[in-house]
Specification:
With 281 residues, the protein is mainly beta. The strands form four sheets. Strands 13-12-11-16-15 form a five-stranded antiparallel β-sheet, with no helix packed on it. The protein has a four-stranded antiparallel β-sheet with strand order 1-2-6-5, with no helix packed on it. A hairpin with an 8-residue loop joins strand 7 and strand 8. The N terminus and C terminus are likely disordered. The protein is 10% helix and 37% strand.
Amino acid sequence: MDIPVFAGMNGSAIENFSCVIYNIFLMNCTWQAGRDAPADTQYFLYWQESREDNQKECELYIKDENFRNTGCIFQNVSIGSEKAYFLVNGSSKDSLIQFYDEYIDLYKIEKLMPPSNITVNCDEIKNACMIQWQRPQINHSNKDKCFKYEINIKYKEGGNSNVYLRSNTRKKYILRMRAAGSACFVNPAWGEWSAPVEFGNEEIISSSVWILLGVATPLLATITIFFSKRTACWKAAFPQIPGPKPAFLTQADTNPELMESKIQSITSENEEIVLVADMGR
């Protein structure tokens, strides 16, 4: 006799089922026991990567303090174009346990790694920087055009680097990048940030020079203000001239995996957010 699809004790099926693919080929699935499941209930996970594949049971379960299966780790997972099928059923001496099943697009649960081999080369004469990187490694695609990027650039904090700022002082910057899918069945959610990359320079001036400037600057300013007011040349002496701002550019290397992108920059007081849209080739 066939068992009805929803046979079993209400509230005995698992809850909060979720899976994530990480480090390219690993997948971790977790769940919670049904709120009304008997204490001796044990759960078992089966899945199919596609309709052509055979159903396989989890080989490495994650257990809670009561030795109940509450998760599974899969190795050598590959992402295909079809939805994968997951089934979790249970068994108990006291009652029939309801099963849980779900179809999932595996590419949507892949956690993207950050771009790698990030380098920044600056040209002080042109007041511009070139940023280069390699696309993230993912499970099922090696195409550059599958990604979009976000670049976060901040002034480096700490020390006295933000105390004595001058228009000709070279600043130290910290850059991070992350990626998201823009096509090719790649997860559209933003992935992890890369490790910080420092670039730029800071001019280090000795403490004796700063002491000298601290004494001489107020005196010089007082004399200048007095002279300017007396000669009615205050506005002419101090025109409002915006300071130069470094530009950040990207350029492809001869390595075909390096990106060639357009950058849109949004600037705040001490932070620069750069959105990158890959041009594709």
